[in-house]
Structures are given as C-alpha cells and as structure tokens.
C-alpha cells in the first residue's frame, strides 16, 4: 500500500492538471486579497453613518467555494486523464490490485485537497485581516483565528469531500465530461430542485446536500445557503463521510468487475 | 513461461478469443501472429490481468498476474505505446512505475539511456514521435529486469535502426533464457526475430510451430543452358520438375547436392542451383486464408 501511495503521489505531482489547479488556487487567493482591498476602499469612501450598509460576503468562505470547485475538478482529472489516454492499463499492469490503486488515489487526492483547501482559506483570512485591519465590514468576521478554526477545518474537509466525489465519479463514468456533469448536477442542480420542494422537506433534504455540510459540521449553520441547518456536527460529519463512501464503494465494485 | 489454457473471452456477442491454448517457453522468441482482430491483443490483456477471461485462464510462471506483488520484476509488457500522459517526462513516467515496484532509481536512469532517450529524459512526452514513445514503452517493459516479456507490435513506428535494435535486444534477452512473446504484422521482421510461432485466427489456434518448419526448403531453382536435357535427367532420377516463367526449373524431391552430382554425370552445365524456402509471409497467408480474421 505504501508503494501504491508513493507511486500515485508521484503521478499526481507530475500531472499537468495539478500544476494548473494549484496555480488557479493561487490566483483565487490573490483575487480575494484584491476584493478585500476593494471593499476597504468602498468602506472608506462611505460616510461613517452608512458604512454598516456595506456587506461583503465572507472572503474565506468564498475562497473555499472556489477551492472546492478546483479540487473537485482535480479529483476528476486525477483519474479521467488515465482513461482518456489508456494509461489506466499501464497503471493496472504496474499495480494489479485495483482496490489498492483506488485507495491510493483517494488517499493522495484527499490529502492534497484538504491541505490546499486549508491553505487557501488561511491565506485568504490572513490577507483579509492584513488589508481590512480593525475596520468593521459586515460579513467579514473579526474573530480570532482560534474561534474560526473549526469552520476553516470543516470547510477544508468539505474540499476533500468534493475532490473525492470527483475522483469516484471519474472512476465510475471513465470520462471527465460525464464526471464533471454529474458533479455539477449534485452540487448545483440538486439544491435548486430541493429548494422547490414543499416545506419542511426542502430544509430536511437541503441539510444533507454536500454544499450544506461544512457549516453544520462547524456548528455555524448555513445563513446564506439554500441548505437547511438541521444536523448536529456529528450527523453532518456522518453525512459527509457517506457522500464519499457510497460513490467510493460503487467505484471499487465497478473497477474490480470491469475490464480495464 | 506463459501458459494460456482454454481461454475464451467474449465482448458482448463478439468472441474475441475462443478456447485458445498455447504455451510460450523460455529461451526463445515466440512470434504471435494473426490477422487484424484475431485476438492477439485481447489474449495479452488477459495474461496481464487487465481483461477478465470469460472462461479458461492465463498464467505467467504458474501464477496469475494480478496476484503478483511486484509484477514488473517478473513480467515486462508493452501493449500500447500511446498510453502515456503527455504532460509527464520519461523520467517521471518511469519513476512512478519504479516506485510502485520497488525498483531503484539508477535502473530508471540506465533504462532511459539504454533505449536512447537520455537526451529527452526531461522533455514532455507530448512532443514525442511514435518511435520515441515505443522506446519509452520498451524502457518501461524492461524496467524491472523481468524474466518474461510481452510486446504488442513494438516495432510499429520505429526507424530501421530501431527495428534492428529491438530485434537484437529481443534475441539477446531470449538467449539469456527469458520468455519473449512478440506480436507483429511485419512478416519479414518476424522471420528474422522469432524462433517459434503461435498463429491465431478468429480467436482460435491455427499453428504453434518452430519457425524453421514453416519456412522449410520448398524447392530448388535450377538454371542451365540445356534445360530440357536436365529436366529429363532430373525426372528420371525421381524429381518433380516444373518449368518457371524466367526459364529456370523448379525441382522438388531432390536436394542441391543430388542435382549437382546428376548434372555432372550427364555433363550438363549448371548456371544456378538455389534452394528456396517458403517465405513466412507465404506460409502465413496460406494458413490464415489470406483475408482478415473476421
Ligand atoms: N474492449 C473491447 N470491447 C469490444 N470488443 C473488443 C474489445 N477489445 C477487442 N474487441 C474485439 O475483439 C476482437 C479481437 O481484437 P484484438 O484487438 O484482440 O485483435 P488483434 O489480434 O490484437 O488485432 P490487431 O492485429 O488489429 O491488433 C476484435 O473483433 C475486436 O473488435
Ligand atoms: Mg492488437
């Protein structure tokens, strides 16, 4: 298993998409800093009485959303590229245990996604603090890092969840286009449908959708999302695990059964 | 040693391999021939555990490929040279394989040198020609110094130097006692490389024979200024003689020595005595019926 992990790590590191995605994350953080700077200019341009009318959505959460998107795509590309080129056969001649290959891919993708997600959120938070300073802008939490860390960790965990979901969908569909389409369906189309379901089911179903889980896990709720906030942190974690475990199991079974 | 036993592989309603049995023995190069769609690549994929057989089995050294812990150290394979992700360099491509099978890094570097890719070891594979990709694929196959090699059309896209290099490489590896299974559609090249042939058509075995039996001497071409006298003498001695278009005689049933002695006894001058074997191509065409596999 160590060999498989090391090999998949080397592969992911030398995949061109990885460099692109990490570059995109860098750009995202820079963009967030730019946004903070722009918010500060707006804020300072307003007369003091009207300043609390200005609201800017939470920059770390915005960064996290973009990071989730990028890393979900990376999760897809970590596997779909091998199917597109036929290299998946090379992979399975080098490492014939398919279960081990899937586990190694998942392990590597999860760690990279979690770390990158956390780095993006923390960098955005730090840049925001530096630029905003002690100005009070609505939507920008001025709380200490230690108080915000649970949310940041939950957000990073959800990045890993999306990346693994992408990976599993790529294994299941063997195509980047199909996997990304499925991902978009679960992530964006499903919430819209659920939102139109009569109450209280919209909230109930909404609370278990992947996009709603990080907030519930951190116990901060989902003030701006369509999802409900009915789950305890532990339940949210369980649902998060299920969003990975079920596609993973399906991917593992298909991988073992199908011809490579 | 590769053992294919009663192997059948279906894809939906297509029977790609149909009850195929043969052994590939060590110490010689075994050529794997058959028309397009005959099932060669499918057989190789089953041997490598990539495709699941519908029935029967394929073993390497008595074991299933997918049970091997470090398969590259036992079996080297080249199925499709194009199956490389273009963003990687040869160094990166071989490095992850080596890491997966606990093969040292020196081996990666020396293989890259051996296949002649040292100059482009750090260039992206995307810009490589087919021949360069074949070389990379061969480096991967040889990476673990395996005792068994399976190569699916490795000379495709290689330049004459490369073709010759592969021929000598494979013959050398077989001489060291390794098992080499090689598929190709280039008959003349196969004739020079292989010692033994397995020929299949429509997924079934057609022939499993030593090369020399397929290309054994067929007749002797004889030319003489007194062809008619010679023909009479040869016929009288028990040979079967037929006139050729170019004025020579095709003689069967007598070998060059007998023909020479006979001509001397009758004082008939000889201009040419050439034993002729069937080319592999001709024999192959005859065996496979000349057409495509399906
Ligand atoms: N994955 C697959 N799905 C469906 N049919 C397949 C698949 N792979 C091979 N076949 C079919 O199986 C048959 C054997 O194909 P195979 O590629 O093994 O032949 P081959 O001897 O390697 O041919 P070639 O000389 O052209 O490489 C063909 O009819 C092919 O269409
Ligand atoms: Mg083939």
UniProtKB/TrEMBL annotation, chain A:
Superkingdom, taxonomy of origin: Bacteria
Coiled coil region boundaries: none
Signal peptide: none
Segments crossing the lipid bilayer: 20-40, 62-85, 106-132, 152-172, 177-194, 234-256
Keywords noted in UniProt: Membrane, Transmembrane, Transmembrane helix
Pfam families to which the protein is assigned, alphabetical: ABC2_membrane_4
Record-given protein name: ABC transporter permease subunit
Organism: Microbispora hainanensis
TrEMBL record, chain B:
Presence of the UniProt keyword Zinc-finger in the record: no
Source organism superkingdom: Bacteria
Residue intervals passing through the bilayer: none
ABC transporter domain mapped to chain residues: 2-227
Organism for this UniProt entry: Microbispora hainanensis
Family named by the database record: Belongs to the ABC transporter superfamily.
UniProt-listed Pfam families: ABC_tran
Protein name, per record: ATP-binding cassette domain-containing protein
One term of GO molecular function: ATP binding
Record keyword Ribonucleoprotein present: no
Keywords: ATP-binding, Nucleotide-binding, Transport
């Amino acid at each position: 298993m160590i060999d498989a992990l090391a090999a998949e790590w080397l592969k992911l590191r030398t995949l061109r998409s990885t460099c692109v995605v990490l570059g995109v994350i860098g750009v995202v953080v820079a963009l967030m800093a730019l946004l903070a700077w722009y918010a500060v200019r707006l804020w300072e341009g307003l007369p003091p009485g009207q300043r609390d009318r200005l609201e800017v959505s939470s920059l770390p959460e915005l960064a996290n959303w973009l990071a989730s998107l990028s890393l979900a795509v990376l999760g897809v590309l970590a596997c779909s590229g091998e199917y597109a080129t036929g290299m998946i056969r090379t992979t399975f001649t080098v490492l014939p245990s398919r279960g081990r290959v899937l586990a190694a891919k998942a392990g590597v993708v999860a760690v990279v996604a979690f770390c990158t997600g956390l780095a993006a959120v923390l960098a955005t938070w730090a840049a925001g603090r530096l630029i905003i300073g002690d100005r009070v802008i609505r939507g920008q939490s001025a709380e200490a890092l230690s108080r915000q860390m649970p949310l940041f960790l939950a957000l990073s965990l959800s990045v890993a969840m999306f990346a693994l979901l992408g990976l599993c969908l790529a294994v299941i569909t063997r195509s980047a286009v199909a996997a990304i389409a499925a991902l978009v369906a679960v992530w964006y189309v499903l919430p819209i449908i659920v939102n139109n379901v009569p109450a209280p089911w919209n909230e109930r179903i909404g609370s278990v959708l992947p996009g709603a889980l990080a907030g519930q896990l951190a116990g901060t709720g989902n003030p701006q999302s369509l999802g409900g906030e009915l789950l305890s942190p532990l339940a949210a974690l369980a649902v998060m695990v299920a969003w990975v475990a079920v596609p993973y199991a399906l991917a593992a079974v298909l991988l073992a059964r199908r011809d490579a | 040693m590769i053992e294919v036993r009663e192997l059948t592989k279906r894809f939906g309603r297509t029977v790609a391999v149909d009850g195929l049995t043969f052994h590939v023995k060590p110490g010689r190069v075994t050529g794997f021939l058959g028309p397009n769609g005959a099932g060669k690549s499918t057989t190789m994929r089953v041997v490598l555990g990539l495709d699941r057989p519908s029935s029967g089995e394929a073993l390497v050294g008595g074991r299933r490929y997918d049970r091997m812990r470090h398969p590259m150290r036992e079996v080297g394979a080249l199925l499709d040279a194009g199956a490389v992700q273009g963003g990687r360099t040869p160094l990166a491509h071989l490095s992850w394989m080596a890491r997966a099978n606990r093969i040292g890094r020196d081996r990666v570097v020396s293989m890259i040198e051996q296949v002649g890719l040292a100059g482009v070891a750090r260039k992206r594979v995307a810009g490589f020609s087919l021949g360069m990709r074949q070389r990379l694929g061969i480096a991967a196959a040889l990476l673990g110094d395996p005792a068994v090699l399976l190569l699916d059309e490795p000379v495709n896209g290689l330049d004459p130097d490369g073709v010759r290099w592969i021929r000598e490489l494979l013959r050398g590896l077989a001489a060291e006692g390794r098992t080499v299974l090689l598929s190709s559609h280039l008959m003349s090249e196969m004739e020079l490389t292989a010692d033994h042939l397995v020929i299949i058509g429509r997924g079934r075995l057609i022939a499993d024979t030593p090369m020399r039996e397929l290309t054994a001497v067929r007749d002797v071409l004889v030319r003489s200024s007194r062809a008619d006298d010679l023909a009479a003498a040869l016929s009288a001695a028990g040979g079967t003689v037929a006139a050729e278009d170019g004025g020579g005689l095709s003689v069967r049933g007598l070998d060059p020595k007998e023909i020479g002695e006979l001509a001397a006894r009758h004082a008939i001058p000889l201009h040419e005595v050439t034993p002729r074997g069937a080319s592999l191509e001709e024999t192959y065409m005859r065996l496979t019926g000349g057409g495509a596999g399906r």
